[in-house]
Amino acid sequence: MRSMAESVSSELTNLHPALRRCWHPVARSSEVGQEPLRAVLLNQAYVLWRDPEGVLHGLIDECPHRRAPLSLGCVNGGLLQCGYHGWKFDGEGVCKEIPALGPDSAIPSRAHARAPFGVEESHGMVFLAPEEPVNQVPMIPEADDASFMWGDLPAVTTRGSAALLADNFLDVAHFPFVHAGTFGAEEVHLVEPYEVVREGLGHYVEVTHDFANREDPGVGEGIRPLIQKRRLTYRYTAPFHLSLRIEFLDAGGVNTIGFFLCPEDAETTRVYSTLWRNDLDGDQARLDEAVAFEVAVIEEDLIIQSRYGVLSVSTDPTKEIHTRADKSSLEMRRILADVIAMTTP
Predict the structure, then answer these.
(1) Residues 226, 289 within the same domain
(2) Number of domains in the chain
(3) Could you give the C-alpha distances from 211 to 89, 215, 243, 250, 332, in angstroms and in order?
(4) DSSP states of 89-152 as a string?
(5) Which of 112, 141, 307, 339 is the most exposed place for a label (fewest CB within 10 A)?
(6) Residue 147 reports pLDDT greater than 50
(7) Strands 44-50 and 56-60
(8) Could you tell me if residue 269 is inside a domain?
(9) Any bridge partners for residue 236, and if so which?
(10) In angstroms, what CA-CA distances link 34 with 55, 73, 79, 337?
(11) How many CB atoms lie within 10 A of CB 111?
């Protein structure tokens, strides 16, 4: 018989202990400068900043002196200075100055701010690992390709489970029902059989299908038919990093959607999303239109996701009913179960 501890651990909530040993997106790189920025991950506040050389730093947002939020301070000479009593800390949390004691006084050995395991940057996002991670910082290859335009959706904090939001991104069976107002009205209900390929603590799914390409100017010009082919490649990296690469096989071009989730506390998740497109001929207006469209798509998803009663995903496959249309999200659950196993003493 399964113990109570095992039963609880199979429910992956926003605050599951295993998530402390993973990299998580906590801010956009463009948000972090030489002013302290507060970010919340797993019910813990952190402070991010850059020194004059642009090097990224992060600490737990609490001064060891009187536990004031360090994010209320400033960056002074590359050091983070607490706004309450002026204590200064370097990027490792080492206290370098206590103004009230004078310049030549010894600094108490315990006067150090706490630091997470690490902070890193990739494809325009800042990632933070509270403890030594079992995964790698993910990447989006299109972010380093100069042929792609880049458009960030406004970040949004929503009531919801990061795991359920990730599940929703991988789920193609909901399109005709949830997204009827954007793109789903023309989607067929049948989900054709597909294969899932596991890659470490991640997986990908690749399918090719017919669709109505109403964006293609060549359709109006009579160069290409309305019904064309596209290749969809979904990629998932534990715990909550996802992307969808859409290749337009007839019209040409690629549209990649990045979906990055930060579990802030027990009930809220911060959603970051970015588009990379190489088929817009440098037209910023078309990119802005594409971003607005994706915002509308996410808003449709959040109508349902924000109203869930249970804010977790079960990594026990017997707890829910799964069909062949759910192979991708079921594999995500298996991967999350592996993360739990790897981080459980």
Answers:
(1) yes
(2) 2
(3) 56, 11, 20, 11, 27
(4) E-TT-BEEE-GGG-TTSPPPTT-B----SEEEEETTEEEEESS--SS-----GGGG-TTSEEEE
(5) 307
(6) yes
(7) antiparallel
(8) yes
(9) 203, 242
(10) 10, 11, 10, 39
(11) 19
Residue carrying structure tokens 């880049």: 150
Does 120 share its domain with 174? Answer: no
CATH of the domain at 51: 2.102.10.10
Contact 111, 99 (CB under 8 A): no
β-strand 125-129 against 156-159: which pairing, if any? unpaired
Structural domain span for residue 102: 26-129
**pLDDT tens digits for range 275-293:** 999 999 999 999 999 999 9
Name the pTM for this structure: 0.93
- Is pLDDT above 80 for 2? no
In terms of pLDDT, which residue wins out, 287 or 177?
A: 287
Query: Tokens 């990739």 — which residue?
Result: 122
Please identify which residue in the block is written with the tokens 């959040």: 302
Q: pLDDT tens for residues 99-142? A: 999 988 899 989 999 999 999 999 999 999 999 999 999 999 99
pLDDT at res. 170: 96
- Residue (of 147, 118, 145, 154) closest to 30 by Cα position: 154
Q: Tokens for 145? A: 């390709």
Q: What is the share, in percent, of the chain residues with pLDDT greater than 70?
A: 97
Give the tokens for residue 116: 């997470």
Classify residue 127 by burial, with Cβ atoms within 10 Å: 0-12, 13-18, 19+: buried
Q: How many CA atoms lie within 13 A of 225 on its CB side?
A: 6
Residues 124 and 167 in one domain: no
Which residue has tokens 């402390």? 20
